[in-house]
Amino acid sequence: MALLEVRDIRKYFGNVEVLKGIDFDLEEGEAISIIGSSGSGKTTLLRCLNFLETPDKGTITVRGERLFDAAAWKSVSEEQVRKKRMHFGMVFQSFNLFPQFTALENVTLAPLLASKGGKAGPPEEEIRKRGMELLGQMGLLDRKDNYPHQLSGGQQQRVAIARALALKPDILCFDEPTSALDPELTGEVLKVIRELAKKNTTMIIVTHEMAFARDVADRVIFMDKGVVLEEGPAREVIDNPKEERTKQFLAGYNQKGEWQEPGAREASASRQGTVGAHVHDGLSQRLRAYRRPFKKENDKDE
Ligand SMILES: Nc1ncnc2c1ncn2[C@@H]1O[C@H](COP(=O)(O)OP(=O)(O)OP(=O)(O)O)[C@@H](O)[C@H]1O
Ligand SMILES: [Mg+2]
Q: Rounded to an integer, what distance in angstroms lies between the CA atom of residue 165 and that of residue 199?
């Protein structure tokens, strides 16, 4: 049985069907990356998994427990939704830290509330210790007493990751965790996500960083106009996409795996020969740069 089973998730905004029956499984310890063009429904899907949006149809099951069934959702209380939400940790594009709290307080706030000051869960001291451990894991122990405005974007995002981990979620979800960051700060955030993947953290990563998705995710899901159009092992989908739409989408990335405007894309594709080879060359080049410091034991050199 998969850790997460998503079945026939459908979501309308007004008359527009934004998710048109999404199905996928996620195994324990697996990292999947969701890619796809703007507006294809990636954020909406993550928000549905975190119960920030209510799907109109479908089911969500974690460890065999039916967390969501559109047919029986009306009778679920706010308190029950809060409990269900704790199965998922969410890291947003824009960090969303509490500005009035320090880094450590941001990480410990939710577990302290959940444990009601130690009456309904672990004692305060234990929660604080775990908060420090998580900040240490993110390389931010010396920043524990800083407020968000005293931290760089990359540091804030790492605090947000520690905060998402603090409640020990079954599944950690990222929605374009680096797209609000300057390029020089992107690497430090990707590095901690990569380390989490090495520790077999179960993750769903929505990203436009193609080279990163190819290298870190076990599986890639390509979404297009509210459906899962293609899915498979990360390298297979990114290097040899089968569907025409996936090919077109990936062809939009330049040699560094960065998105480029259609005009520039065509010019560069014609310089490089076939589009597929062009994408693959570009990604391989970028991956070599990524790989050097973080090579996985089972990675083969290319
Ligand atoms: N609250 C909302 N009300 C109405 N329409 C919405 C709402 N949220 C999203 N949409 C629409 O749903 C569609 C999917 O949006 P979504 O944000 O999920 O796309 P995405 O794949 O995350 O795109 P991006 O790559 O730009 O982040 C879009 O057409 C968007 O305009
Ligand atoms: Mg989005």
A: 13
Q: How many CB atoms are closer than 10 A to CB 182?
A: 10
Which residue minimizes the CA distance to atom 17 of ligand 1? 43
Of residues 3, 14, 19, the one with CA closest to residue 67 = 3
Residue 255 reports pLDDT greater than 60: no
Ligand 1 atom nearest 37 alpha carbon? 25
- Domain extents in the chain: 4-87+170-241, 97-168
Please state the pTM of the whole predicted model: 0.86
pLDDT of residue 86: 93
Lookup: tokens for 81: 């939704």
Residues above pLDDT 90, as percent of the chain: 76
What are 97-151's pLDDT values in tens digits?
999 999 999 999 999 998 886 677 888 999 999 999 999 999 999 999 999 999 9
Distance CA 299, CA 29 (A): 17
Cβ distance 173 to 88 under 8 Å? yes
Please give all residues whose beta carbon lies within 6 A of any atom in ligand 1, as ranges.
Answer: 13, 18, 36, 38-44
* Banded pLDDT at 19 (limits 50, 70, 90): very high
Kindly identify the ligand whose nearest atom is closest to the C-alpha of 221: 1
* CATH code of domain 4-87+170-241: 3.40.50.300
Contact 209/178 with Cβ under 8 angstroms?
Answer: yes
Ligand nearest to the CA of 39: 1
